[in-house]
Design goal:
The protein has five helices and 13 strands. The chain is an alpha/beta fold and 217 residues long. β9 and β10 form a beta hairpin.
């Protein structure tokens, strides 16, 4: 049986597009249905059998830590890594490398998807990226950023902000990776997605999990 990966959740967003809603709290702490958005995600992971999670904190990280503590009330043991300054997704992961085991599930603290992540981990022992079909008019992204070979079950290209390429899929905001993938990240601020996804795709090392757009962000 494939080892259970550690959920690593990027939770350092400023939430600038939400305006005054995030003036006193980080984006993952905006309330939805009476609870912080991030709490819904952590409860989902607990229900699926995950017993630990690593939260990568940035803006107002103290607010998240004060609310969730060690995670005991949710049934998920929580560990935290706090950025001293904004480092991007790559910098945040590189900073927390010593807390990340050989295999990890990368999630975003402002995205909830109706997906069985434990089953995903069993289907994909190697690196994997969730993608969904791009259609014109999506308000969450201006253009596709992923190309894929569905027959081979592989991502073949990852190009951000290249509308002229007419790429047919979108990065769905979750994936499975290994700790050694973090070795490709430079020191300081960087983007995990832009540094790694294209490189893995070109090497034929990035499997895909095709999903629909049934998620909330």
């Amino acid at each position: 049986m494939t080892a259970v990966p550690l959920p690593v959740i990027l939770a350092g967003g400023l939430g600038t597009r939400l305006g005054t809603i995030c003036s006193d709290r980080p984006k993952p702490m905006v309330e939805v249905a009476g609870r912080p958005f991030l709490e819904h995600l952590l409860c989902q992971l607990a229900t699926q059998g995950f017993r630990q999670a690593l939260l990568l904190l940035g803006y107002r990280g103290d607010t998240i830590r004060a609310h969730f503590g060690n995670g005991e009330e949710l049934g998920v043991e929580l560990v935290y890594s706090q950025e001293p300054e904004p480092l991007g997704t790559g910098g945040a992961l590189r900073l927390a490398r010593h807390l990340i085991p050989e295999r990890f599930l990368l999630l975003y603290g402002d995205l909830y998807r109706n997906l069985d992540y434990m089953a995903l981990a069993q289907r994909h022992p190697g690196a994997c990226l969730g993608v969904y079909p791009y259609v014109a008019g999506l308000h969450t992204i201006a253009c596709g950023n992923v190309d894929a070979d569905l027959n081979a079950g592989r991502v073949t290209r990852y190009l951000k902000n290249r509308p002229e390429m007419l790429l047919p899929y979108v990065d769905a905001g979750f994936g499975l990776f290994h700790r050694h993938h973090l070795d490709a990240l430079p020191e300081g601020k960087s983007s995990f997605e832009e540094t790694l996804y294209g490189r893995l795709a070109e090497g034929g090392e990035l499997a895909l999990e095709l999903v629909d757009r049934n998620f909330y962000r």
